[in-house]
Structure formats: C-alpha cells, structure tokens
Specification:
This protein has 252 residues and is an alpha/beta fold. The chain has 9 helices and 4 strands, in the order αααααβαβαβαβα. A 4-stranded parallel β-sheet has the order 3-2-1-4, sandwiched between helices. α6 links the parallel β1 and β2. α1 packs across α9 and α8 crosses α9. The longest helix has 18 residues. The model has no long low-confidence stretch (mean pLDDT 91).
C-alpha cells in the first residue's frame, strides 16, 4: 500500500494478511522497505529502512535479504480487499497474532510505564477522548467528525456520571485540543504531537523525522488510550488499535 493511511490502517492491512498466511501455511514477512509508504524516512533510522520495523517487530525470523533469494515468494495485493476487516478488536481471529506476529518494539511498553509513573496515573480513573478532524472532514468512506457542541455535551455527560481523575485527549486537530484545554484545564492530559487545522500531515514536513514521528506519536497515544477506564470517540483506526491492545476486551 502507498496510500496516506494511518499507521494502524497499515497494521490492520498486515493483520488481515497474517490470517491468509496462517491459513495457507505461508511464512509472513512485512516489506515496507522496498514497498514504501508515507512513514518511510529517506535514510536508515533505528537501524532499518523498513518502516514497519520502526514500530513493530518483524512477523517472522527471516530477513528481507534472505526472502529475495528464496525459491517461492508470494506478494500480497496492494489494496484493502472488500472482504478484509477494519474493526480488528471485534474479530477474535486477530487476537491470535497479538504479542506474536504483531508485537510492538520494546521501547513502547517502556514509554507507557514511564508516562504513567511520571504523571502518577497508576490506579487513576482516566477518560480517554479521541476525536478526529482534518482529513475526516473530506475523506470518503470515513465517519463525519463530531462538532464542538457534541464533544462538550458527551464529555460533560460522562464526567457528571463518573468521577474521572484525568482526561486524556488524543486529536490531530489543533482547534479540538484548544477547546479541551480551555474547558477542562485541571484534568486534561495530552502528548505534544503534530497538530493542524488542515489536512496537511502528509504534505508539510517541517520537522526532522516527521514521517517516522507521525506513526510513533499515534502508537504512543493508542497505548495510553488502551489503559483508560472509559473511551469517548468517533470511530477510527486509533480507537480500534487501542481496544485491540487493551486488556479489557469489552469495548464495542
């Protein structure tokens, strides 16, 4: 795939192909070095040119150099087939790959533990909020973004029902974050990630390692969301991933 999709759309793409690989008894390997996407940096980063390996461990013990010397190699299609599943956390068949073929690089669990320690969040009740803006305003096949009024209505409803210690906000829309900072200043948590009010994340590259960082920031936010007590959101692949990584599998 070469589309400007989110990192977890790519993970879902890989998961669906892992199902095929297991069924056919293929040995899977993800090649995002020769088949690049918007997350690939031009030079080697983290000792690899394979953007999949920026974030995830490889799906098998083989190296690409070995694969391309092999006798039998099968390439996947480059599109998202209509029979493939997007809502990965609702398909039990995908759970079999978690922490096996789909395994995050070690530094992410280390980051998560340090983040919770630094902010004293262990045993705290956190409301995780994820609202997409930017591309959701115009991209076909996506849910419409929520309005500011809707965000406030449902955040206030949830916080009036339950006493949350903190509110973790994940959004790439600057206006949305500004709204939550203004309305919930004492409880808000967020990461310092790339934000804009335009659909320009894959257009403007005004920071070093911007391509890598777009995926890195999404992984970190999804992991924090996965530890929240409750979630308020408009459906996205980040929410699907947060639920996929969560130990609580009751989310819909």
């Amino acid at each position: 795939r070469t589309s400007h999709a989110g990192i977890f759309s790519y993970m879902s793409f890989v998961l669906n192909h892992l199902v095929i690989a297991r069924k056919k008894k293929f040995i899977p390997i993800v090649d995002m070095e020769n088949f690049t996407n918007p997350y690939n940096e031009k030079e080697k980063l983290l000792n690899t040119k394979n953007s999949w390996e920026y974030y995830f461990k490889q799906t098998s013990n083989y190296k690409l150099s070995e694969v391309y010397k092999s006798k039998n190699v099968i390439f996947s299609r480059n599109d998202y087939h209509h029979k493939m599943e997007y809502r990965i956390h609702l398909e039990p068949k995908f759970n079999a790959f978690l922490n096996k073929e789909i395994k995050l690089q070690n530094r992410y669990n280390e980051y998560l533990n340090l983040y919770f320690q630094k902010n004293q969040l262990h045993d705290k009740k956190i409301l995780g909020i994820h609202f997409r803006g930017t591309s959701y305003k115009t991209s076909r096949g996506h849910i419409f973004p929520a309005t500011i009024e809707q965000m406030k209505k449902y955040t206030d409803e949830l916080t009036s029902i339950e006493d949350f210690d903190k509110i973790f906000v994940c959004t790439e829309e600057k206006n949305y974050l500004d709204f939550f900072k203004k309305n919930y200043p004492k409880k808000i948590l967020y990461l310092d990630t790339y934000r804009s009010d335009k659909n320009d994340a894959f257009i403007k590259y005004n920071r070093k390692y911007h391509r890598y960082l777009l995926g890195d920031e999404s992984v970190k936010e999804a992991l924090i969301l996965s530890k929240c007590s409750s979630l308020l959101f408009v459906r996205s692949n980040i929410i699907n991933a947060a639920n996929f990584f969560s130990e609580n599998k009751q989310y819909l």
